Each structure stands twice: as C-alpha cells, then as structure tokens.
Amino acid sequence: MVSVVRCWKAEYQKCKHSILLYMHSMIPIICAAIFAGYYHISRWELAAKISAYLEVLAVAFPFLIGIIVGLVVQIENQAGHYQLLLGTIPSRMATYIGKLGFLMICAFGATFLALGTFAALYRDAPASLYLKAWILLLITMLPIYLIHLFVGMSFGKGASMGLGIAGSLIAALMITGLGDATWKYIPWAWGVRAMDYTVLAWDSPQLYAQVKTDFFSGMIISVCCTVCLLIASLVWFHGWEGGKNSE
C-alpha cells in the first residue's frame, strides 16, 4: 500500500504542470454549465434533458480517456523512455495499480464535477439520480482505462487517441437499436446504456421493471470482464519492458 501511495504522489508530480489536471477540472464544469444553461430555456421534457446529458457524458468519456491516456503515455515516454515507470518502484504490481488508481481518482473528480455542477445549476431531478449515475459511470470507465493503458503503452499515444475516437463512435451507435442485442458485450456501450437504464428507472419505474433483468445481466457481464481485464493487465505489465518510442 505504501508503494501505491508513492506512485500516486509520483503521478501527481509528473502531471501537475501538464494539461491533464485542467482537462479533468475545467472541461466538466464548462460542459455542465452549457447544458444547464440551455436546458433552462429549452422546452424538452425533463427526462429527455437528463437522459441526453448523461448520454453525452458516457459517449464523450471514451474520447477523453483516449486523449488522457495518450498524454500520460507521452509523459512517460519523454521521461527516459518509461524508465521512471519501470525502475522507481520495486513492485511492478504497485506501479501499475498506482498509475491506474491515479487515473481513476482524476476520473472520480471529473465525473463529480460534471454531475455535481449540472445538479447544482439544474435542480429539477433528485440527487439520488445523479449519485447512481456517478457510480455507474465510474464502474464502466474502469475497463476503458484498462484497455487504453494497454494500447497506449504498447503502441503509443496515437493508438490510444485513435481508439478513443472509435470508442466514442461505438458508444453513440449503441444508443440506437443496433445496440439492443450486443451492448452487454461491448465495453464502450456499458456506460451509455447504464445511463439510459438509470433515467428509465427514475422516470418510468413500471417500464424499467420489465427490462431490469437485461440491465442487471449487462452489469454482471461488465464487472466480470473488468476483473478479467485487470488480472490480464497485471500479468501483461509484469513482463512489459517499455512501449514504442514514437510519440
């Protein structure tokens, strides 16, 4: 645990002068303010407004994760071609968990700002709805980070960013009927579908009762896949010796 905390501190020192912290703080606040301001003058139904905002967050996060992980990989590459990452902490597991934990702490703060700012400016929905959405967003973001860390460290910053763009496009497609039968098995669909079910449970409990089995089965699959991805990532990182030198 001490080694993991040291990794968190090291990650913060490496990133505090970069754009990463500003991305996690300013972008959520600005986006929440824009949506809340627009909703105050629009004539959409309340459930449609909340659903649209949560869907936008879930669709945007894969793209942002691709950029964030790409920048993290670039920082590590510039710092002696990953030597600080590979040589500062004796435990490879602690190093990887420390980096993943730091990214999730940043995601924790970013989602809190995105939902908290929106909830403060647009108070027509209960806080419990935003709390449930916040928890589900964090759960569904973890596998995306795991995938991007592998891709970014193995193939470079450009690969992570390209995958982020593709992931957001996939997430957007999964909102439509194309995702009805396949969303449970696609990591980029878990977040956006979880947001839809969250709003449905609040707005139409009777309709949600008819489809909640589909939601629960999808979440069980996502959690199981996330555990498998985490184990596979730890095994991979244990034998990893540095990624591509290209930016």
Structural category: mainly alpha
Question: How do the helices and strands follow one another from N- to C-terminus?
Answer: HHHHHHHHH
Shape: globular
Q: What is the number of helical segments per DSSP (H or I, 4+ residues)?
A: 9
Can you characterise this structure?
With 247 residues, the protein is an all-alpha fold. Helix content is 82%, strand content 0%. The protein contains nine helices and no strands. Helix 1 crosses helix 5, helix 2 packs antiparallel against helix 3 and helix 3 packs parallel to helix 6. It is globular.
What are the SSEs and their pairings?
Blueprint: H1 2-15, H2 20-41, H3 46-78, H4 83-87, H5 92-121, H6 127-155, H7 157-174, H8 187-203, H9 205-238
Helix pairs in contact: 1-5, 2-3, 2-5, 3-6, 3-7, 3-8, 5-6, 6-7, 6-8, 6-9, 7-8, 8-9
Task: Describe the structure in brief.
The protein has helices at 2-15, 20-41, 46-78, 83-87, 92-121, 127-155, 157-174, 187-203, 205-238. The chain is mostly helical.
Name some characteristics of this structure.
247 residues, single chain, 9 helices
